Amino acid sequence: TAAVFLAFAEYLGVAVYGNPQASTYLLVTAPLVSVMYFDMTADAMLKGLGEQVHSMKINIADSALSLFFALVLVPTLGIKGYIISVYVCESMNCVLSVRRLYKVTGVAPSLFGSILPSLLAAGVAVTLTRIIPSRIGATGLDSLWLVLCGLIIISMSACLQSKKKKDGAKE
Questions:
Q1: What are the residues whose beta carbons fall under 8 Å from the beta carbon of 28, sequence distance 6 or more?
Q2: CA-based angle 136:124:121, to the nearest 5?
Q3: Which of 62, 26, 29, 28 is nearest to 43 (CA)?
Q4: What is the mean pLDDT of each run of 10 residues along the chain (171 residues)?
Q5: Is 149 exposed, middle or buried (0-12, 13-18, 19+ CB in 10 A)?
Q6: Per-residue pLDDT tens over the stretch 151-160
Q7: Nearest Cα residue to 141 out of 1, 6, 10, 3
Q8: Smallest Cα–Cα separation from 30: which of 60, 12, 6?
Q9: Torsion angle of alpha carbons 77, 78, 81, 87, nearest 10°?
Q10: Which of 43, 63, 95, 133 is in Cβ range 3.0-4.6 Å of 143 for a Cys bridge?
């Protein structure tokens, strides 16, 4: 999703908000999408493992820090202060949640097993969305639809490969 926001920020800014200036903020906040998703996933896992209280403590700390930044940074820096606040608070929340998840389960995110391949796939997708549509004459939202279809196909392929691995492990 972050890759889609990065690749199509200008089109999404106009299509969703009716304003090309919105694309600037989509570009700036796009990397947060992955951090927020990772955090939500870690929180859900913690809750499923009976760690609701710890998860709640992290979220209360996040809210307190967000309030502090809203009172200190936003009045002086405006939207830039808000963006700084969101980056700091979401990153802190994610790091604390993943750290707790690691403590509880003993399983750490694999840099080479999951993080780098995902970043590489996103990079390839963004690159291809810039090259292929221009070669076939697609522009704007047509390119976005091509990317979304491609993401669906890649996701389905990944699910099938995962199922094959699980089925192979059971035998």
A1: 83
A2: 135
A3: 62
A4: 76 81 86 88 92 92 94 93 93 92 84 72 71 63 66 71 59 50
A5: exposed
A6: 777 777 777 6
A7: 10
A8: 6
A9: -160
A10: 133
* Contact (Cβ atoms closer than 8 angstroms) between residue 8 and residue 14: no
At 152, list the tokens: 């669906």
What is the phi-psi region of residue 86: left when phi exceeds 0, alpha when psi lies from -120 to 50, beta otherwise?
A: alpha
- Closest C-alpha to 5, from 167, 129, 138: 129
pLDDT digit string (tens) for 26-66? 888 888 888 898 899 999 999 999 999 999 999 999 999 99
What's the confidence (pLDDT) of residue 147?
Answer: 66
The pLDDT of residue 91: 92
Cβ proximity of 84 and 91 under 8 Å = no
Q: What angle do CA 90, 96, 102 make, to 5 degrees?
A: 130
3-state secondary structure of 139: coil
